[in-house]
Amino acid sequence: MDRIAIHGGARLNGSIPISGAKNSALKLMAASILTDRPLRLTNMPRLADTKFLGRLLQALGVEVTESESGGEQETLFHAREITSTFAPYDLVRQMRASFNVLGPLLARTGHARVSLPGGCTIGARPVDLHLDALSRLGAAIQLEEGYVSAVAPDGLRGAEIEFPFVSVGATEHAMLAAVMARGTTVLRRAAMEPEIGDLARCLTAMGARIEGIDTDVLTIEGVTSLNGADWSVIPDRIEMGSFAVAAAMAGGEVRLTRARAELMTALTEKMVRAGVEVTPTEDGVIVRRDPAVRLRAVDVETEVYPGFATDLQAQFMTLMTLAEGESRIRETIFENRFMHAPELGRLGADIHVHAGEAVVRGVDHLIGAPVMATDLRASVSLVIAGLVAQGETIVDRVYHLDRGFERLEEKLTACGADIRRLKGDE
Ligand code: EPZ
């Protein structure tokens, strides 16, 4: 199993290009099932998660062709014919987003059998809202032996769906099914994350009719077929936020490019209050911090977009470990997303977790130690801590990191970090 070794203390100076968003790419990939025409996705991140889903799509009959031209990564998805509507446990278990092939399979073929994804380290993460939405769209659903079997022999039909609370995955899943349902679908209390807007715009480019994009009410007029499209994946705001925090933590000046500053406004506000300079540019942001000046403690509560992203909570908590004063960090989206706190404690951070809140008291310095990554965002928070911890930090189980960060060591090394990957046997 690979590990990452970091020698803390180097300032970060330079430029980091931001990749396409994992959480957009995965849903755009699922959209390829809806059409027998090719869907060409550019700005495609090459990640373990996109690879997993690519493998599942291939098992369903989708041709997947990766290429690169002029430094631009693209992947062509061509679901000429769906040869299987079965998504086995082994392929869904590895990554929850695989579950989102259910709706498109139903819309395209009228039936599907997809494994339930199960929980994960950050929480139980049920899919009841997804299933509820699909049954309102006319699918007959049965749960048996860990699988969802769904049929809609006469096709899906439009419906009014009001989600009981905001869910990113359920909103996307309902949209992926409703674009080819007969009649009108209205999705109320829809999630407004930028990746949902990206999916809606790509579907529109494919011929779908969607109104209310970027709002919490989506009105979808079903169409009988969709075309292919060329679509550039939106920049990854979580990767951008993670590097922004890394630069703030280490000190120095880092320019994040190929990104969009307005997608991380909630983080920027908090960083500025903590004493970090964040300057939007035409294609991203510049993050600057004088390491001689101590950071200030700031409270954070995770919320749905445009609030503070749960996917940036671990990174911000890391920043607060060195801030002056006491910071309260509340997690409201997932019930178990503080697994990084005890690991940060191993580096000398002072964090007390009670229920959904972590109280972080800033310390003078962190000291390197072996730590264990527990999930994707937790692992990057440990890398960020390692950048400033005295001595060496070894992050174990970096396969979590590979799920969602493209060429992380390379990007940080280019800015002066002392970080390297230790291969399984090193
Ligand atoms: C997406 O997960 C992201 N994943 C997550 O990113 C992100 O943390 C999350 O949205 C919130 O922003 C992808 O896009 C692949 P939800 P998702 O449905 O769709 C509960 C990362 O690190 N819920 O908005 O699963 C659920 O348990 C990942 O990249 C139900 O109860 O999130 C959670 O508490 C981690 N029933 C809350 O809703 C349901 O049917 C919000 O989850 C669905 C969700």
List the helices and strands and how they pair.
Elements: E1 3-7, E2 12-17, H1 22-31, E3 38-42, H2 48-60, E4 63-69, E5 72-78, E6 86-87, H3 89-93, H4 102-109, E7 111-115, H5 128-136, E8 140-144, E9 147-151, E10 160-162, H6 168-178, E11 184-188, H7 194-205, E12 209-211, E13 217-221, E14 229-232, H8 237-250, E15 252-257, H9 265-274, E16 277-281, E17 284-289, E18 300-301, H10 313-320, E19 326-330, H11 340-346, E20 350-354, E21 357-361, E22 370-372, H12 376-388, E23 392-396, H13 399-402, H14 408-413, E24 418-422
Parallel strand pairs: 2-15, 3-14, 6-7, 10-11, 18-19, 22-23
Antiparallel strand pairs: 1-23, 1-24, 3-5, 4-5, 7-9, 8-9, 11-13, 12-13, 15-17, 16-17, 19-21, 20-21
The structure holds ligand EPZ.
Kindly describe this structure:
With 426 residues, the protein is α/β, with parallel strands linked by helices. The chain has two domains: 3-18 and 235-422, Alpha-beta prism (UDP-n-acetylglucosamine1-carboxyvinyl-transferase, Chain); 22-232, UDP-n-acetylglucosamine1-carboxyvinyl-transferase, Chain, CATH 3.65.10. Helix content is 31%, strand content 27%. The protein has 14 helices and 24 strands. It has helices spanning 22-31, 48-60, 89-93, 102-109, 128-136, 168-178, 194-205, 237-250, 265-274, 313-320, 340-346, 376-388, 399-402, 408-413; strands spanning 3-7, 12-17, 38-42, 63-69, 72-78, 86-87, 111-115, 140-144, 147-151, 160-162, 184-188, 209-211, 217-221, 229-232, 252-257, 277-281, 284-289, 300-301, 326-330, 350-354, 357-361, 370-372, 392-396, 418-422. The protein has a four-stranded mixed sheet. Strands 2-15-17-16 form a four-stranded mixed sheet. Bound molecules: ligand EPZ. Ligand EPZ binds next to α1, α5, α6 and α12.
